Amino acid sequence: MYLKILRETLNWKIFIMVLLVLCCFSGCSLLDIFSKQEMVRNSPEGLYSRGSVEFQKSNYKKAREYFLRLKEEYPLHNLAILAEIGIADSHYSDKEYLEAENAYSDFITLHPTNENVPYALYQTGMCHYNQIEAIDRDQTAAIKAKKELEKLVSRYPDSKFATMAEKLIRECKQKLAEQEFYVGQFYFKQKKYQAALARFETVARDYANVGLDYKVEYFINETKAKIAEEEKLKKAEEERLKKTQQEKSRTAKK
User: Fold this and answer.
1) pTM of the predicted protein model
2) CA 185 → CA 192, 216, 221, distances in Å?
3) Count of CB atoms within 10 A of residue 26's CB?
4) What would the pLDDT profile of 221-245 be if each residue is shown by its tens digit?
5) How far apart are CA 125 and CA 151, in angstroms?
6) Is 61:95 a contact under the CB 8 Å cutoff?
7) 81-90: per-residue pLDDT in tens?
8) Could you give the CA distance from residue 66 to residue 208 in angstroms, rounded to a whole number?
9) What is the C-alpha separation between 165 and 114, in angstroms, rounded?
10) Do 89 and 68 touch, CB atoms closer than 8 A?
């Protein structure tokens, strides 16, 4: 144990001696060396590197601090733009989707011609996509995700992110179709056939080829048959009431 401590102490002394020798030859002090090291660490490159390291370690809050410093202290540096993406990504990775969406949107607004805009659009869509709930819940997130991803495909059809977005758009459509179908079935079971038919026809019209075509066609036909049956019964009841009224009138005249 004592030998280990002695060895470490000697190694540290040797390190200090080497630094002193270097200082003598270069005409600088230890303070100068450490100051230069700190300047490198706090340079745009240093801050971005430190932020990236923390991000890779999943220390997203710490990474965001370095990216924010870079953006605020060196706003005109080319790495400041990447730092903005880093800030948005850190929020996204921390599942702070509202903050991430705002950060990506700000980036798109401030840098509309930047090469990273397709990525920012894709990530904006993903912020909503990750919040999609079960089909028996509100599907606003699916609607917003679909809208943002379609915007990406429309503006940047040749982007690799557009290819990825197309798959997610189909999934969003499927979620929306499933919810419409789910509500349609609920109305069908409640014998509210007109409301059910409206839902089934929406699926057939707006969400074709997402895997529900045959089921929707079957339920549309069944619902129409139920409506026709109701109309027939209603008409028969009206005829019966009319006849009853006529008989009462004739009886009253006698």
Assistant:
1) 0.76
2) 10, 10, 13
3) 10
4) 999 999 999 999 888 888 788 777 7
5) 9
6) no
7) 999 999 999 9
8) 48
9) 19
10) no
